[in-house]
Amino acid sequence: MYNISLRNQKTNFEKYATDFNPERTKIGLKQISKNWKSENQTWDNWNELSDENYDDGKISKFGKIFSLKDINTGMIYENDSSDLNTNFQSKIIWLNSNILFWRNGIESEMDFYERKIDSNTVENLSIRYYFKDHNGNKNYFEANHSVYKLDEFSCGTPVIMEREEQRISGKPYFGNITKKQADSILTKWNKKTRHNIVYN
């Protein structure tokens, strides 16, 4: 059963990697490039993105399998390109894995962008698409934009509390900007990046 579960996860990884690129184009997400570094997050090495802790041995993992609950897995892609004409940093894909293979699927996918304004100021942009969230809401975007100083402390507690309130409400998550505004920011960034590149 354990090996079947891991095989289901592997099938999920293959399904939502580069083969899923045409669907990403339709949705408005960035396609996966072959020159990005990738890491599959199985329940054996999943830590940062999981709501569960699987570091307490295989017994709890077998319990999870037989409970027929979804197991949180996913993939992380980091931009390993030498192309300077991009602010894209990474893509995170959240997947659901289940011993009942027909329940396997993708939960959400996020593209993360970053731009250095100066030596001490960074601008971040994340665009996340939910195929289905924890409350059952489907097919919507959540976008967030922020600017911060590297030498200043920033407390993330208010953001975490606000997000928890959104989850409890049962409604779709919402960021601090719209998808249309996020696309507009990216367009401006790309123009500035191309303008600042010196060609030999």
Keywords:
about 200 residues; 6 strands; alpha+beta; 5 helices; six-stranded antiparallel sheet; single chain
Characterization of the model:
This protein is of the alpha+beta class and 200 residues long. The chain is 30% helix and 28% strand. The protein contains five helices and six strands; from the N terminus they run ααβαβββββαα. Strands 1-2-3-4-5-6 form a six-stranded antiparallel sheet. The longest helix is centred in the C-terminal third of the chain and has 18 residues, at 179-196. The protein is globular. Mean pLDDT is 81; it is low at 46-56.
* Helical stretch tally: 5
Which residue ranges are poorly predicted, with pLDDT under 50 across at least 5 consecutive positions? 46-56
* Strand portion: 25-35%
User: Helices and strands, in N-to-C order?
Assistant: HHEHEEEEEHH
Helix percent reads: 25-40%
> What gyration radius follows from the Cα positions, in whole Å?
19 Å
Give the overall shape.
globular
Largest sheet: 6 strands, antiparallel
Main β-sheet, spatial strand arrangement: 1-2-3-4-5-6
